[in-house]
Amino acid sequence: MRDAVRRAAERAWAEGERAPVELDRARDRASAASIARAVRDLCPDGVLDPAALTAAGALAERHAPIVARWIDELEIRGRLRARPAEGGRTELEWRCEAPSPRETADAWAEARSHRSGAALTRFFARAADHLPELLADTVQAQSLLFEDDDVTDEIYRSNEASRYTNAAAAAAVRAHLEPRTATAVWEIGGGTGATTEPVLDAVRDLDLRYHFTDVGRWFLDQALDRWAGRAGLTTGLADINDPDLASNLALPPAGGYDVALAANVLHNAADPARTLTAVARAVAEDGLLVMIETAREHLPLLVSMRFLMSPPGPGARFTDHRAATGRIFLSLPEWKDALARSGWRLDLTAPGPDPSHPAARYDQHLLVARRVAPEIGTA
Ligand SMILES: C[S@@+](CC[C@H](N)C(=O)[O-])C[C@H]1O[C@@H](n2cnc3c(N)ncnc32)[C@H](O)[C@@H]1O
User: Fold this and answer.
1) Tens-place pLDDT, residues 12-50
2) Whose CA is nearest to atom 22 of ligand 1?
3) Does any ligand 1 atom lie closer than 6 A to the CB of residue 235?
4) 195 lines ligand 1 (CB under 6 A)
5) CATH number for 170
6) Percentage of the chain lying above the pLDDT 70 cut
7) What ligand 1 atom has the least distance to the C-alpha of 152?
8) Does 344 lie in the same domain as 237?
9) pLDDT on residue 150
10) Model-wide pTM > 0.85
11) CB burial string 202-228: b at 16+ within 10 A, e below
12) 156 CB under 6 A from ligand 1?
């Protein structure tokens, strides 16, 4: 499987457009400028007081960890020093002036001057322009995202990291199912179908049931329209934070699914080990979990997509170390550990922790885990 996965991924990687490293740098510079400006505007007296900002309606409670992460990033870049103060407040000592609105706009103009990744840059810039409203929850990141169809395509399908990981996922599913008969795949958080499409293509000749699920009904309707007439395709709602996820799944096959597929969704789990345990309950022994995850929170993500990832309510709040750090993504070692505690063994990562790989700068990976524990614990 390893060779098939890497071959398919490298081929897809080589086939499409490559974004220049200068584009990443320009987006990073512009995002850092927007973050510095937003923190400066939120805390004009150099004190971050989340409770007061929430009471004043300037900061939705669920987004408060974003500001904490921004301050971490500004510290890493030497722009300020942060000291915890009483009452959950933070004192900020600026080490260099926050860029002016004009300098910030110029930084975004420079990022937009790159031809590749243009739709995505437009989205990042649009989100960066609305940081006060996003923080206050008066504008939703979804509305900025879905203004422009090209953006979702660039985020999940056409960019080089997604081409690599989606092709890798399709090859892994194919390699596992090919020797088996009457197989079944459960896709979790199928969303826009950017991973579904290459997977369905790769297994088109196999006898297969494919259960496409998401937490949002809109995505299910889209999937039904898109793959109308595809034999064996069903859809259903499934929330990875549902304590009864496995038992509430519509139509689980006897013996369990051969593959659970989860592309860019499992980081939404309030408790990753609990969700992974629930997924394992729906998968046959020796079955696979094929997942795609990004390990690094890039600055453009922290001014845009990150707002989509704030848990909607108390029931979905992170209960692992992320509750304290404000981070959203788990590192590869953290996923390996969560998988090992939940009835899985991590068999393969691609590209994995290889700094010399040309996709390393994206830090987005395919992870393939095998269900190993006959008795699944209660992580
Ligand atoms: C980043 S998108 C990726 C979607 C998809 N893999 C694609 O390629 O478009 C995350 C998806 O996870 C879904 N999602 C978010 N929270 C979820 C949850 N608690 N349970 C199940 N799905 C969830 C969203 O509705 C969205 O479709």
Assistant:
1) 888 877 878 899 999 999 999 999 999 999 999 999 999
2) 189
3) no
4) yes
5) 3.40.50.150
6) 96
7) 9
8) yes
9) 75
10) yes
11) bbeebebbbbbbbbeeebbebbeeebe
12) yes
